[in-house]
Amino acid sequence: MLSFYQSANLRWTLFSSEVKYTLGEIVLFLGGAKSGKTRAALTLVESLAPPRYYLATAEPLDAEMYLRIQNHRAERGPDWQTVEEPLEPAGALALIPDDRPVLLDCLTLWFSNLMGRRPGLLDPAPFLADVDRLAASALARGGVTVIVSNDVGGGLVPMEPSLRFFRDLSGLAHQRLAAQASAVYMVNAGLSWKIK
Hints:
This protein has 196 residues and is an alpha/beta fold. It contains 7 helices and 7 strands.
């Protein structure tokens, strides 16, 4: 019997041998917290030749997040180059060598960062314009861009207007990116389903 990581590697080896990436492809991984979406995305990108780039949007604003970031770095290993950009991932993508695979983790943390710097702004238009810039930057690259994001719309309706806005913004952004992605995966309990 294969372990989860062995079976994930087998699935992604088969997947990557069937798919030939072309100019500017986006692959989107969606799932809940600790669903296995980042591990699945890492496995896919690790099937591609190094060097690989990890575009991190997390900021170490407290001790728990600092430890989480350190654990993620250790999990990735030495074949990854880390680029930290909490606010302008589209600009950071433009600075990464064009033909190298990039894993952007994660979209919803990026939204949290933007909302923290735009307090009280509950208009999705500027945020979706940022998403459109990110998609355009990814599509203009020569390498594949794998994007990880939390699917936060499947739970209860939040009581606070800003939390409802965050949930709705995430859903709208996912729809926009999924429309332009060559592949979209839902991940739950460590299992991935290709939905596009």
